[in-house]
Amino acid sequence: MSMIRDLRAVVRPSRVSLRKGSSAYDPAPETGSATAVVDCAVYRDGRRLTTEAPLTPQDAMRLVRRDGGFVWIGLHEPTEAEFAGIAREFGLHPLAVEDAVQAHQRPKLERYDDSLFTVFKTIHYLDHDRLTSSSEVVATGEVMCFTGRDFFITVRHGGQGSLRALRHRLQADPELLAKGPSAVLHAIADHVVDGYIAVADAVQDDIDEVENEVFSPGRKGVPRGTDAGRIYQLKREVLEFKRAVAPLLRPMQLLSERPMRLIDPEIQKYFRDVADHVARVQEQVIGFDELLNSILQANLAQASVAQNADMRKITSWAAIIAVPTMVCGVYGMNFEHMPETQWKYGYPMVLGVTVAICLGIHRMLKRNGWL
Questions:
Q1: pLDDT > 70: percent of the chain
Q2: 49 and 63 in contact (C-beta within 8 Å)?
Q3: Residue 135, Cα to own-chain centre: how many angstroms?
Q4: 286 Cβ neighbours under 8 A, 6+ residues apart
Q5: Average pLDDT, integer, range 163-175
Q6: Cα-trace Rg, the chain
Q7: Does the pLDDT of residue 274 top 70, yes or no?
Q8: Over the stretch 49-86, which tens digit does the pLDDT of each residue have?
Q9: DSSP secondary-structure letter at 134?
Q10: What confidence score (pLDDT) does residue 231 get?
Q11: CA–CA separation, 240 vs 139, rounded Å?
Q12: Computed from CA positions of residues 85, 88, 90, 92, in that sequence, does the dihedral angle turn out positive or negative?
C-alpha cells in the first residue's frame, strides 16, 4: 500500500520551478536554487556506496568505471541545458534525450545502441467528494528510464511525489539490487502498473455510483437518470487512463519474451507478471469505456422517455380543458335564439354536462397511462 500511495503522489500535475540554465553537474548549488538531480548514487553488490559529499553524475560514473557496480541517477523535470551534460557523459541518443526533456510521450520501449529507453505513463487518482461534470478523476505523469550496462537514469515529470520510497525499498533488498539496472527497471514497471490497478478500482467505484443514479427508481418507479455531463466527463477521464495503459502492453511483452543483453535473464521472467497485470487493467479500462457508452445511451433514452411523458400529460390536460373552452365559446356568442338560454336550469345543466365530459376524458386518459 505504501507503494501505491507513493505512485498517487507522483503524478499530480502541478510543477516545481527549476533554475533556468543550471547544470546537472553543479556540485554545490547555490542556496535557494533548484537542481534537476534528485538523487545520484553508486551501487556495488546491491549496496549503496556512502560518500562524504553528494555525488555528481560525473563523479559517480568515474567510480563505476574504476571499481565496478552501476550508478542510478534520478532527475525531476530537467531542462535541456541541465540534461545535456548527463547525456554526453552516458552517451544517450539525442532522440531519446529530446523525448525525455519535452515529455508528453506515449508509453514505449526503444533501443539505442547500448541503452534502452522506456517511457511509462503514471496515473494518479484525484479524490473528490462528489463526481460532477467538471471533476478531474485521473491525472497523468511520466517516468522515462534509460537502462545501460552500468547506469540507470530516471527522468520524472509530475509536480508531487517521488520514486524515493521505491529506491529505499530496493536498497533494503541487496540481493535483488545486485542484479543491476534491469532489476531497477522491473521495479519501476511493477510500481507503475500496481498504481494502475489501484486507480482502476477507484474508477470502478465512480462508474458504479453513476450507474446506480441512472437506474435508481425516481417518482412512480421510473428511473430518474442523471446529468449527462457527469457521464461524459467520466468517459473522458477513462479515455485518458486508456491512453496510458494500452500502449504499455507491447513493451512489457517484449521485455518478457525477447532476449536482451541489458536485461538479466532472471529478471526477464518477472516482466511476464507485469505484462499480465497490464493486460488485465487494459481489459478493465476497455470495459469501463463500453459500460459508460451504455450508461450514456440509457441516460439519454430516459431523458427522451421523460420528455414524451411530459408531453403526454400536457396534451391530456389540453384535451380536458378544450371541452369547457368549446362550450364557453359557443354560449359566449350573442345570438338571440340559443337553446336553453331562457330555461331556469339551463346554466347548471351546461356546467354539469361540461364537468361530466371532462371527468370522463380524465378517467379514460388515466386508464391509458397518460396521466
A1: 81
A2: yes
A3: 11
A4: 242
A5: 90
A6: 34
A7: yes
A8: 988 888 888 889 999 998 899 999 999 989 998 899 89
A9: T
A10: 84
A11: 8
A12: positive
Across residues 224-228, what is the average pLDDT?
Answer: 64
Task: Classify strands 151-157 and 70-76 as parallel, antiparallel or unpaired.
Answer: parallel
Q: Per-residue confidence at 153, pLDDT binned at 50, 70, 90?
A: very high
61 Rama class: left (phi>0) / alpha (psi -120 to 50) / beta: alpha
What crossing angle do the helices spanning 181-215 and 249-257 adopt, rounded to 10°? 140
State pTM to two decimals: 0.73
| Whole-Å CA distances, 243 to 240, 246, 288, 327, 340 | 5, 6, 13, 68, 80
Which residues lie closer than 8 Å to 29 by C-beta, 6 or more apart? 19, 22, 35
* Helix, strand, coil percentages in the chain from 3-state DSSP, rounded to 5: 55, 15, 30
The pLDDT score that the predictor gives to residue 272 is 92
Phi, psi of 143 (to 5 degrees): -130, 115
Q: Cα–Cα distance between 245 and 265 in angstroms, integer?
A: 25
Cell of 248: 504499455
Sequence-distant (6+) residues with CB within 8 A of 238 are 137, 203, 285, 288, 289, 292
pLDDT of 353: 80
Q: Residue 159's pLDDT is what?
A: 61
Contact 85, 25 (CB under 8 A): yes
Q: Which residue has the cell 520524472?
A: 156
